[in-house]
Amino acid sequence: MIWLVGNRGMLGTEVYRRLQAAKLEHVATDLDVDITDRQALSAFSDPLDLSWIVNCSAYTAVDRAEDEPEQAFRINAEGVRNLAGAACQQGARFLHISTDYVFDGRKEGAYLETDTPNPSGIYGRSKLKGELNIRESIDSHVILRTAWLYGPAGNNFVRTMLRLFQERDEVKVVADQWGSPTLAGDLADAILWIITRDALQFGTYHFTNEGRTNWFEFASLILELARKHHLLEREVRLLPIQTEQYPTKALRPANSYLSKEKIKTALGVPVRPWQEALESFMNSLAVHQKES
Ligand SMILES: NC(=O)c1ccc[n+]([C@@H]2O[C@H](COP(=O)([O-])OP(=O)(O)OC[C@H]3O[C@@H](n4cnc5c(N)ncnc54)[C@H](OP(=O)(O)O)[C@@H]3O)[C@@H](O)[C@H]2O)c1
Questions:
Q1: What digits encode the pLDDT tens for the residues 16-35?
Q2: What is the pTM of this model?
Q3: How far apart are CA 237 and CA 35, in angstroms?
Q4: CB neighbours (10 Å) of residue 18?
Q5: 101 catalytic residue (yes or no)
Q6: What is the residue extent of each domain of the chain?
Q7: Are 258 and 190 in contact (CB under 8 A)?
Q8: How many other CB atoms are there within 10 angstroms of residue 290's CB atom?
Q9: Ligand 1 centre from 170 Cα, in Å?
Q10: Would you list the DSSP string of 71-97?
Q11: DSSP annotation of 67
Q12: What are phi and psi of 281, to 5 degrees?
């Protein structure tokens, strides 16, 4: 039995859909089983015969975390330790999602799993502490670090751009932060690929879509595809800006580019280019719009 934690989030909804479609035996929870409440967690999981706990829950408010570090650490570090402990106690495996924000973004070139983390904000620090808690608690774990996640559920960059393209004549987007977008469905596919393999090398892996870009280029392709798929009929001017012109409470890494070599070679997980993933997402939005 698989326990999916965080099934109402952006990634969790995609994993949930796939567990249902594949008819894999599972249970799914979100805030109804608070991962920071050890008693509630045990009461829920003790009676189950678990093979995997898949954790898609998290505190993800990057800027707000600067004002409420206790809450970020309670969920991303302590809550994650509680889940890893529950998996260990049950003899289950633990799959967890982490982030590019564990790195400071100063490296030139792709980040490897062996690179030393050095988070610059509270969110990144809390996620790194979560990783450390997992490694201390359970050997049979997979930590997947991802970045720039978007999909049909929740707030994300693609949704924000599509909204701004409808509201404004001019949209400014930072062009000096580099990384790879990740379609939530593609990451969910990777998760199902991993948890349905018998032979598995546990450890830490990076997964995003393939290819390196910046937010401005990402926005430019969203705009182009929105026009192509008739999701946008009006004219919008897109302007590249520098990070200093778009100040945020928490620092963003200038380089978020994660190498996928390890996950491809050690686990055989397929990784498609970010442009291809975005095209399929925009196409599905267009189909959905036509149907509704
Ligand atoms: N989004 C990105 O760009 C990005 C980038 C890199 C890595 N990641 C990582 O990817 C994973 C999935 O991200 P996401 O964007 O899908 O997150 P999300 O949409 O914020 O979903 C997280 C879910 O966890 C729930 N949750 C929060 N606190 C909880 C608690 N104490 N107990 C149980 N559930 C709780 C949330 O409920 P509420 O919404 O009601 O609080 C939400 O449904 C996270 O680990 C995140 O750190 C995300």
A1: 999 999 999 999 999 999 99
A2: 0.97
A3: 44
A4: 16
A5: no
A6: 2-155+181-210+257-272
A7: no
A8: 9
A9: 31
A10: HHHIIIIIIHHHHHHHHHHHT-EEEEE
A11: T
A12: -65, -45
Amino acid code (one letter) for 25? E
Protein residue with least CA distance to atom 19, ligand 1: 9
CATH superfamily of 2-155+181-210+257-272: NAD(P)-binding Rossmann-like Domain (3.40.50.720)
Query: What is the DSSP pairing of strand 178-179 with strand 213-214?
Result: antiparallel
Q: Which residues of the chain have pLDDT under 70?
A: none
Beta strands of 159-202 (E only): which ranges?
Answer: 170-174, 178-179, 182-183
pLDDT value of position 270: 96
Question: Residues lining ligand 1, judged by CB closer than 6 Å?
Answer: 6, 8-12, 30-31, 34-36, 56-60, 75, 79, 97, 99, 127, 146-149, 154
Find out whether 16 and 24 touch, Cβ atoms under 8 Å.
Answer: no
What is the C-alpha separation between 168 and 145, in angstroms, rounded? 34
Q: Residue 245 has what DSSP assignment?
A: G
Judge whether 213 and 274 are in contact, CB under 8 Å.
yes
Q: Identify the active-site residue in 16, 101, 111, 123.
A: 123
